[in-house]
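Researcher: Go.
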Amino acid sequence: MSNTNTTKQAQVKKEESKPVLPWNKADHGVAMKTFTGYNVNLTGWIRKDIQENTRKRKNERKRKRKRKRKRNRKRRRRRRRRRRKNRKVKIRKI
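Model: Structure:
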């Protein structure tokens, strides 16, 4: 009889020690593309950690694109300068 009592106590301790993941009620749909090619909007509860990860990934992609654009702008400017510098000066006859 005491054996079953200790197992119940152990189960209760295990359940209490599990971390609780916060969930957010999503007011908007989450766009997903299925393997068949359909676009589906899912609505409902989203785990907070997943939501944060997707936000971080999205922001990181934005930063990468911005850096790439900036780098390309600099390269274009350098090329233009080189072209202008390397142009041959046309001599006009008077």
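Model: The longest strand covers residues 23-33.
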